[in-house]
User: Fold these one by one.
Assistant:
Number 1:
Amino acid sequence: MGTEDVKIVFSPMAQLQSGAHQTAGQLEGHADDLLHRMRATVGNGWDDDAANAQLEQYQLVRKNTGYHIAALNAEGAAYGEVLDIGQQTLSRVMRLVSGM
């Protein structure tokens, strides 16, 4: 068996981590914007029962969106942890191999 170079690529895991956090941030910004617009609409003369019901719906959507945001951030953190474990493992292996 000949010697073969081994290439370990960490950038995809870092990209997944960044992408999950970026998507969560965009989703949060969009949900917050919609809720603020609805609050402004209700506060500017559209104050009947239908408006208040619609505002409650937007608040519920924002709350549920918060669960998705938390899940995306947790996913991003998990990618980061896997990335850290991989980098630490590589570092240990390199120290062991260089000590041989």
Note: The chain has a mean pLDDT of 89.
Number 2:
Amino acid sequence: MCVAHIDAADCAKEEKSMKKKKGMKWEHTSNRVWRAIGENGSFLISQTGTTFWAQYISRGKSFKMPPKQKLSEAKSMCEDNEYWED
């Protein structure tokens, strides 16, 4: 939602950013794996024991993220990442 003091270009960027966060949806693909797929890449979370490991994979970029003790923390970390997309 835009605030009155923000110009139209910034407003459009903000709305696009909000739409991005709603675009990727988590899918539970197997017993210990979750993924969210976008147009340019995907986030993958796998569980090893009690630890959740997240990573981002695309054609030109891939990286692992720090482990988390809760699935919700791993998902939030991915959703807050700049590569989260439509």
Note: The two ends are 18 Å apart (CA to CA).
